[in-house]
Specification:
The protein is mainly α. It contains ten helices and two strands. It has a single domain, classed as Orthogonal Bundle (hpI Integrase, Chain A).
Length: about 190
């Protein structure tokens, strides 16, 4: 088991896989985990910040402005009409007693549950953890924008990375570029 200060990796999910799992969670009334996946993959937040999002933030506000817990950097997130609708729907079904959308305590217990969900829903991913959501967000934005440099620049700012190389490595682009070099050599 890695120490808290030790670097670990999480992989990203393909966006269609993310949508499939979201639908399954909704159908099976796994509303807390539905909201965890929804917020994580649509806002690109770390688990420490996801757990700070309130129902009021999602249902009543146009924007969520928060200082990231890990780095203290400011995030300004527009809450779309679609997210508001989904949050209101889940709020009505779940009738939560607390103000926080994801009121799960321990990150390790969340990761254990994610491992069970991976198996149950046959999620095609290697390393799956709470950080997968943030990486899935980044990868989706990059692919949706045609794998453009513009998307990398925006992601670099959104994810508050120190440079573009970090962002590329973070969403798995750097390794793909390296793999292409090996393929090119192998084919010659």
């Amino acid at each position: 088991m890695p120490r808290k200060d030790q670097f670990t990796t999480a992989d990203f999910m393909d966006w269609s896989e993310n949508l499939r799992v979201l639908n399954s969670l909704y159908e099976e009334k796994e509303y807390t985990y539905y909201m965890l996946f929804l917020i994580g993959t649509h806002f690109g937040l770390r688990i420490s910040d996801i757990k700070r999002i309130t129902w009021d933030d999602l249902i009543r506000k146009e924007r969520i402005v928060l200082n990231e817990k890990k780095r203290g950097k400011r995030r300004n997130i527009e809450v779309s009409h679609k997210i508001k609708e989904r949050a209101l729907d889940i709020y009505g079904k779940q009738k939560p007693s607390g103000k926080y959308v994801v009121s799960l305590k321990s990150d390790s217990s969340i990761n254990k549950k994610l491992k069970r969900l991976k198996k149950k829903y046959k999620i095609d991913i290697g390393n799956f953890s709470t950080h997968t959501f943030r990486k899935t967000f980044g990868r989706y934005i990059w692919e949706k924008d045609g794998r453009s440099d513009r998307a990398l620049i925006m992601l670099n700012e959104i994810l508050n990375h120190s440079n573009i190389q970090t962002t590329k490595r973070y969403i798995g682009i750097r390794q793909e570029e390296i793999d292409q070099v090996y393929k090119m050599v192998a084919e010659s």
